[in-house]
Structure formats: C-alpha cells, structure tokens
Amino acid sequence: MAAQTKETYEQTLRWLESSPSLDELCERFPSDWNVVADKLDAVKGKGTQGLHEVIGQYSTPARQSRDRQLPQAARMSQLVQRRMVLISLRSVSDRRESGVQEGAIRFGLIYGFLLQRTLFKKDLERKPVHLGRFGLVWRLSKQRNRLMPLVRPQGIYCFYSRTLIKNIVRIIDGRDAVEIAAGDGTLTGFLNEEGASVIATDDFSWSGSVSYPESVQKFDARAALQKLAPRVAICSWPPAGNPFEKSVFVAPSVETYIVITSTDEREASNWATYREQTDFELDDSTALDTLVFPPGRNRVLVFRRRGANS
Q: Please, which residues have CB within 8 angstroms of residue 279's CB and are 6 or more apart in sequence?
C-alpha cells in the first residue's frame, strides 16, 4: 500500500503534484496498481463508462477528503489509486479522440507543419491564432483530432484567437486583473500585449509538465486573491471539481470573473461552486465560445458581481 509515515505521506503528495506518468506510479506503488488493475478488469469492455464507474468508487482526493478519520496510509492509497484510474481514463479517451488505436499518436509531416505554423511561435510556445488562417488549416487537416491528445500532457488545453484576447481586454476595461492557475502564463502574456494589466499566478503544482517562467508569480488562488486584491479574476481551464474557485466568489475585491472552460462539465471547472454562489450573475456568451480553439470544445463564462459597475 501507499506510504505510511507522515513524512513520506507529505513527500508523496508533493511528488503526485508533479504529474507522474502511470508507469512511474505503478513502479512506486505496485500494490496499489494491483488493486486498480483488478477493478479495471471487472469493467473490461465498458470503455470510458467502466472507467468512470471505477473513479466513482473513490472519494475526493485525500487533501480534500472530509473523512479525516481514515489512517494516512489508507487516504494515501485512495489518492494514488484514483490518480491511476484518471490517467487510464485519459489514455482511453485520447485513443478514442485521436482515432489512433495502436502505436504513438503523432501528426503526418504536412499536417504537423501546418498546425505548428498556425498555433505556435516555436516548439510548444503558443501564439494568438488568426481566425481565418486557423479555420482553413483546421478544415484541411484530416488528422485534427490528434491535436489535443498530443498537447494536453504539456498543460495545453485550448488555443486563444486574437479576437478573443481583444474581447477579454475590453471586459477587463483597464482594471487590475489576476489570472489564477495560470500555468505558463500564456493567456496573461497575450492580454498584456494588448494593453491589459494582468498578473499571472500559479501554485506551481504542475511543475512536472509545465515550465513556469519568472513572469508567473507563485501563489495559490486564495493567496493571490487576498494579497493582490484584483477587480478582475481570470482562469483558463480550471481543473474539474477544484477547490480553489470558491475563493473567487468570496474575494471582496473581485467584480468580474472570466473563465475559459470545457463544454463537458466533467473535464474542467467547479460547476457545483458556480451553481451555489449567489453574488454573481453569469453571462454565458456563445459569441466568445467560438473564439477559442479547437471549435466546439470550449465555453467562455463571464461572472459579474451584482451591483458592481463592471
């Protein structure tokens, strides 16, 4: 089973935050993988539905669990096993999405070149996307379904058009803004290039897959909102069921919260928090949805505090 001493428990939590691969998890926790493998065998043939059934057998991650009576070793095993199932689910989903059932998921030379020139400055450094150019390349690319399975492991969940950036800058309207869970700070960089004043913040918990530049300040969401007191908060693809978005709706300085998220509520955001909060009105603007790529996968939500001049 997973680690039993408090020191190892905390060390393992930090290690899990670096997003280890399934192979690394299995090597470090073989007995936990044996438990997971048995559960996966029991739902074999059900595909992603079966994996969701297995995930449902676990409570929320150990740090968020309300059942503090469980021994640390049991909570640790629960967290490790849940992570193993989530990675397995992502692998199955990526295969289904990409259409590549065997071997490595990759682009052909021509399509890879076209998408690289359209979406990136160099390597995996994103650039604001030209709407017309992207539309043409996307229609021509027969391998477009491979894009997100290839870039998601690097912390990339969507691409921003130039038009989207300009629209968000207009919503910010010169106010102080903070991006929480900003990852490598790409969105903040684009907004600031268009004249906004945004500070990128992140707790650096994805250091295993995301390279954090000096421009991203190390704050968790709650600390960032308390210390920087922005009038506008921004988040792009917050993790599904995350605990930190609750901090946005109780932060007294925040007048507007802009969220770029998934059309599938299971993939991103804390939708329970969105529905429970009562101080903000939601503008679910489909006009902005179409300005995030790939098309049909993203939603842009703008929460405005009732009574605020925002």
A: 249, 305, 306
Burial annotation 260-270 (CB, 10 A radius, 16+ → b, else e):
bbbeeeeebbb
As a whole number of angstroms, the distance between CA 3 and CA 28 comes to 10
What distance in Å separates the CA atoms of residue 146 and residue 49, rounded to the nearest whole number? 22
What is the Cα–Cα distance from 290 to 161, expressed in whole angstroms? Answer: 9
CA neighbor of 151 nearest in space, from 182, 180, 119: 119
The residue written with tokens 């790409």 in the block is 186
State pLDDT tens for residues 267-309. 889 999 999 999 999 987 668 998 998 888 899 999 999 987 6
How crowded is residue 231: how many other Cβ atoms within 10 Å of its Cβ? Answer: 19
For 292, residues 6+ apart whose C-beta sits below 8 A from its C-beta are 158, 159, 160, 161, 164, 260, 298, 300
On the CB side of 52, how many CA atoms lie within 13 Å of its CA? 7
What CA–CA distance (Å, rounded) separates 44 from 211? 37
Residue 301's DSSP bridge partners are 259, 284
The arrangement of strands across the sheet holding 232-236 comes to 216-218, 198-202, 177-179, 232-236, 256-262, 298-305, 280-284
Q: Which percentage of the chain shows pLDDT scores above 70?
A: 76
Domains and CATH numbers, the chain: 6-98 (no CATH), 109-154 (no CATH), 159-305 (3.40.50.150)
Are 199 and 179 in contact, with CB atoms under 8 Å apart? yes
Terminal Cα-to-Cα distance of the chain (whole angstroms): 52
- Convert the pLDDT of each residue in 67-79 to its tens digit: 445 677 777 888 8
* Predicted pLDDT at 310: 58
C-alpha Rg value of the chain to the nearest Å: 20
